[in-house]
Amino acid sequence: MKFKRNLSIKANIPTTTMADIVFLLLIFFIISTTFVVQPAIKIKLPQATTKEMEPTEAVMIFLTKDSRLFINEEEIAWSWDLASILKPKIYASRENLVVIKADREVDFGRVVKIMDIAKQAGAKRLAVATQPIEEE
């Protein structure tokens, strides 16, 4: 007596475990990736031998070497009334402190102009940001 044999082989790949493995690999690579935060405003600060200032609630004014002006990382046009923009920001901070981060290649006259405008807007204290002198 001859038995009928089923010669067709059905291959079955378990895809549910494959999806789990791919998901675990994805999580592993996301966690092991290092993220580098690039500053939005590129400024080369002048060097000085001063101590670091403790972080405070200060109004930050950035001035790039191509004379672009930022207040708390928001770009401001030179043609606007800077004192009227600065005044509410200064009074909103507890210390009435303005920190100026100007690129070392910026004309000194522009820095003095910003300092004068900040004083007119009500800043009680002004600071110019620097970086430590690199030792050779």
UniProtKB/TrEMBL annotation:
GO terms for molecular function: transmembrane transporter activity. It is a single-pass membrane protein; Single-pass type II membrane protein. The keyword Transmembrane helix applies. InterPro entries: ExbD. Coiled coil: none annotated. GO terms for biological process: protein transport. Belongs to the ExbD/TolR family. One of its GO terms (cellular component) is plasma membrane. This is Biopolymer transporter ExbD. The keyword Protein transport applies. Keywords: Cell membrane, Membrane, Protein transport, Transmembrane, Transmembrane helix, Transport. The chain crosses the membrane at residues 21-41. Pfam families: ExbD (PF02472). It is found in: Cell membrane. It comes from Candidatus Desantisbacteria bacterium CG1_02_38_46.
